Amino acid sequence: MDIDGNPANEGEISLELEPRPLGLMAGYFGDAEKNAEVTRDGVYHTGDVATMDEDGYITYVGRADDVFKASDYRISPFELESVAIEHQAVAEAAVVPSPDPLRLAVPKVFIVLRQGYSPSQELAKDIFTFLRANLAPYKRIRRLEFSDLPKTISGKIRRVELRASEAKRRAADDKGKWEFFEEDFPELRAA
């Protein structure tokens, strides 16, 4: 559905509640406010964003609360992370929006390295080069940080924590020791 609640080929995956889909949960226990939020307008809002092509194939984009805009393009962290972990040095990756005065936000990737690799400027440049070769220009990751990832007890990455720390860091104009910006490598522009 689009933002106005109309059927669309891109947007949040939503299910009509009349008739109620078989197997759909009864609701959030003890949380009437959350129930009202996810079942508003007679529709169950999943919180997942997807696109559907002309043949009816659905492509998962990501969680609605994770998808962000950069230069007015919708960016899916899931897609960018999938490319980042294809680099031989990358064990895990998490992408969040990083505040930017020109573009509002740019994609930033937090990277956990595989055993045998160490954070360095050379490795950051190599990863940026790899990402540039494998992502469309408007999806380009423009900031990178070698870091551990905050996780829940069940092992899910706590993106909300990463987004908050990134916003705080940019507001303070504080660049970390193992943080690199694409513009740190002007030679990439010529490539």
Features of the shown structure:
Luciferase, domain 3; three-stranded antiparallel sheet; 191 residues; single chain; 24% helix; alpha+beta; GMP Synthetase, Chain A, domain 3
Q: In oligomeric terms, what are we looking at?
A: single chain
User: CATH superfamily of the largest domain, please?
Assistant: ANL, C-terminal domain
Along the chain, the helix and strand elements come as EHEEEEHEEHEHEH
Number of strands: 9
- CATH class division of the largest domain: Alpha Beta
Mean pLDDT value: 87
At CATH level 2, the architecture of the largest domain is 2-Layer Sandwich
Please describe the biggest sheet, giving its number of strands, its sense, and whether it closes into a barrel: 4 strands, mixed
Describe this structure in words.
With 191 residues, the chain is α+β, with helices and mostly antiparallel strands. The protein has two domains: 54 residues, Luciferase, Domain 3 (Luciferase, domain 3, Roll); 123 residues, ANL, C-terminal domain (GMP Synthetase, Chain A, domain 3, 2-Layer Sandwich). Helices cover 24% and strands 30% of the residues. It has five helices and nine strands, in the order E-H-E-E-E-E-H-E-E-H-E-H-E-H. The strands form three sheets. The protein has a four-stranded mixed sheet with strand order 6-7-8-9, with helices on both faces. Strands 1-2-3 form a three-stranded antiparallel sheet. A hairpin with a 5-residue loop joins strand 2 and strand 3. The longest helix is centred in the last third of the chain and has 14 residues. It is elongated and about 55 Å long.
